[in-house]
Amino acid sequence: MDAVYEVYADGEKFGELRISRGGVDWWPRDAKRHGELLTWEQFAARMEGS
Description:
Layout lengths: L2 E7 L2 E9 L2 E6 L7 E3 L1 H9 L2
Antiparallel strand pairs: 1-2, 2-3, 3-4
């Protein structure tokens, strides 16, 4: 893992965005075990709304 960003909304933790060479991992604040791993291509498609 290269970087971890904690994401907040209205003063409360919304989740964590974990970025690595292999892709992006989103961990919602209530995740108990693991988040959702996306390749860079999948992440780009989601950001573009595809």
